[in-house]
Amino acid sequence: MNIGSQWNDRLRIWAEQFPKYYYRKAAALSVSYFTTMEHIPFEQAAQGHYAPAPVGMKWGRTWEYGWFRTQVVIPEDLAGKRVVFTLNTAEEMLVWVNGRESGAIDKRHRFITLSRAARAGDTYEIYAECYAGHGIRNEGAGPVGWGEESVPEPPIHQVTVGQSHFGVWNEALFQAAMDYLTLYSLVQKLPEKSLRTMKIVEGLKKFTYIADFELPEPEMTASILEAGKLLKPLLECRNGSTAPEYTVFGQSHLDLAWLWPVEETMRKAARTYANQLALMEEYEAKHTEYLKQFELSMPEKEETVTEIAVKRNPGGTFEIPCDINGLALQMVFDTGASDVTISSVEADFMFKNGYLSEKDIKGKTYYQIANGQISEGTTITLREVKIGDAVLHNVDASVVKSQMAPLLLGQSAMERFGAITIDNQNNKLIIKH
What we know:
By secondary structure, the protein is an alpha+beta fold. The protein has helices at about 5-15, 40-45, 170-190, 195-210, 220-230, 230-235, 260-280, 285-290, 345-350, 410-415, and strands spanning about 25-30, 30-35, 50, 60, 65-75, 85, 90-95, 100-105, 110-115, 125-130, 160, 165-170, 305-310, 310, 320-325, 325-335, 340-345, 360-370, 375-385, 390-400, 410, 420-425, 430.
């Protein structure tokens, strides 16, 4: 759009700033490895003989695989944060965290999440099956001259080990960036003189006045989230009744039979599916809502049973040990309570110690206390609620003003865990999820 070179440059510069701040490195990781030409299962690889793999080490014959491992222990200063890691040991790899396939790292997917609300002292054992490759890929290349080698033989060692590390992922800033970049890309495509284009440009300009990348954290992220409020009404706009309606499906292109053996095809499929399953797990609510539009359902999950000891209180309630955003708390499960609530005392503690942040605040809510009185509270989002190995993400909760209010785990959360029963004889909570 013809808004002048200075404004064009300013909007572009702001768009280019975001990726620099998605991730903050906390510490480097030391890795060890062994190589094999065989397709071996994870359980066997975990028992392999590993040797140190220093930065700069070269490895990787044609078709060779390297199994790499490392460990992350969450430090105190990352408690409550979203912690991710990356391995720079090859271009393609399938990753296991604590024995579970957790995603893939490749050219377009650099990080894997360890926890959305980390807990200090938690340990993560990480393994990765890395593909060395099979030489130069000449897809999309032009004609090969007479006497030229179309696919030259790869070197003895194709891969150089880089620095692996873990750190904090700023999801709130990433989501704000997606809003800005979506509107910024629309400006490049929409008719220059349309009212829609002009409104978007006006909103993006105002965004750059508020979003200040020169501030220290957490003020920088706070300024970007504040600026993002200006973009929300622009993103909520809808086309008129005469405009066509589009439905877009994402897809992952898989070359299932191409320039590699069947065994590598199986691995490439596993890497792709692992990332998609991780996304489906993180955005389960949105994914389920989307599938309902097409009368589809989520695939069946293998049932897992979690048993955890509980304390029975007078009146029929139970105290349950929970982790809320990485903070260990005793919550009260009351079958008569509908919502999740915490008192202002716990909320203040969580804010002061990094277990809650400004981005977790949603707004005001109203609730009825035991005497029938209606009181005002604050609605927040709990990024992670964990009971044993059963985990929920993005749970709505209310902060009540009373300092003596119990920490209530109501039906709105418990129903999301799955089928729940109480073993009164053994004082156990049983969750089938």
